[in-house]
Amino acid sequence: MDNIKVVVSPVIKQDGRQKIFISFIDEEDKREAEAIIPGLVFIKNVGFSDEELDEFREFLENEQGNILETAKTINPLAEFFGKKK
Fold first, then answer.
1. Are 67 and 8 in contact (CB under 8 A)?
2. What highest taxon heads this organism's lineage (predicted)?
3. Domain range for residue 20?
4. Domain assignment of residue 52, yes or no
5. Residue 85 within any structural domain of the chain
6. Which residues make beta-bridge pairs with 45?
């Protein structure tokens, strides 16, 4: 996963369920994939191979707990206005 930036959303309530969106971004090659947890479902893929998506899925499986804890600490308004925690 060299040169891939991982971006985690705050916890979002959608359809009565809590979800977290995770983006995998390769700015150099203009590729992007987006997944949702829980469920590890990829909802977007631009340019990544199936093998790379499998790597990302394994990463998400292994880091799900850490991702959840990180997502809980994100304040969307503070992030929008560039304020530090």
1. yes
2. Bacteria
3. 5-80
4. yes
5. no
6. 33
Distance CA 73, CA 45 (A): 27
In the structure encoding, which two tokens stand for residue 63, read together?
């880091």
Closest CA to 68 of 37, 40, 39, 41: 37
The helix/strand/coil state of 69 is helix
Tokens for 84, please give them: 């530090």
pLDDT tier, 48 (very low <50, low <70, confident <90, very high otherwise)? very high
Q: Can you give the pLDDT at residue 78? A: 59
What's the structural domain count of the chain? 1
pLDDT over 90 percentage in the chain: 68
Whether residue 76 contacts residue 14, with contact meaning beta carbons closer than 8 Å, is answered with no
List, as one string, the DSSP characters of 6-68. EEEPPPEEETTEEEEEEEEEETTTTEEEEEEETTTEEEEEES--HHHHHHHHHHHHHHHHHHH
